[in-house]
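Dear U.,

Please find below the material for section 3 of the report. The protein was modelled together with zinc ion; I have listed the sequence and SMILES used, followed by the predicted complex structure.
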Amino acid sequence: MATRRISVPETAVTRMKVAKISKPGAGFEIVEREIPEPGAGHVRIKVQACGICHSDVLTVEGAWPGIQYPRVPGHEVAGIIDEVGDGVSAWKKGQRAGVGWHGGHDNTCRECRRGDFRNCRNQKIAGISYDGGYQQYMVAPVEALVAIPESLSDVDAGPLLCAGITTYNALRHSGALPGDVVAVQGIGGLGHLGIQFANKFGYTVAAIGRGPENATLAKKLGATVYIDSQSENAADALQKLGGAKVILATAPNSKAMSQLIDGLGPNGKLMVIGATFDPIEVTPFQLISGSRTIQGWAAGTPADSEDTLRFAELSGVRPMVETYPLEKAAEAYARMMSGNAQFRVVLTM
Ligand SMILES: [Zn+2]
Ligand SMILES: [Zn+2]
């Protein structure tokens, strides 16, 4: 008897898992949603990995003005484009792409017209302005997309799109030259990448941590010197090295940052990337003597992210990660908040 081949209609996957915050402070909820369609100028990314950043607290606790709920956090996204909207020509289905902190710009404000997209007045942020990467599929505007080089894994690429670009871009714009003393305050999610980049940039790297336990790791990551700020005055220790040209302040601890200002050498700069709402304390005299400066730095554009990924690919800089499945988003987020993660927590889908 002849068997007839029955054609089974392809059952398209139409639902996806999402870790959402329904209101500030409510914590994570794992829910199912329809997979969204990308509109004009947008693509849909099948998310493979999404890093958890301390700034996700802005979404979880509602600290960003005007944020709308429910909201899905996540701005360290790595995945594959699986659908493109109308008018998208530069990105193709099947291409690897990511989204970092810079979630889009308007191309019309004064800063954009001058090419300063990083400071767009209407900048969008993934996971704050629209749903981010704590989900299986996300929709993103083309202005936010970052091409991911073949040799970088998704779990490595994700954290490089916020923690990585922030340290890389802040350092390369800091004015420090090869051989200069550059201090990296804090050995955590940002700091462990900052030490690696600073080493590859050819600086004399002073890593500053609290307690002796990170000394070996800091040296392994490329620090020339390790300063334990609990057992010695870190500013004095930096002055013994001639004073820092740049201190990259990564730990969100304003008091610790304030205590380091006297460790800056002439024309030294405190480069602030550890985000907190507490004030840094400094006297005018501290700034005037030696013409010191304090500057803040926020991530960068997708083009800067691509520079970061290519530099990481060339130099071997990689994040150290702990991975959790999306379903354990709450546990993973708590792990990040504990400060004990080694060093970046990444969700996998
Ligand atoms: Zn971030
Ligand atoms: Zn703009």
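For the text of the report, you could mention the following: The longest helix spans residues 154-172.

Regards,
Y.
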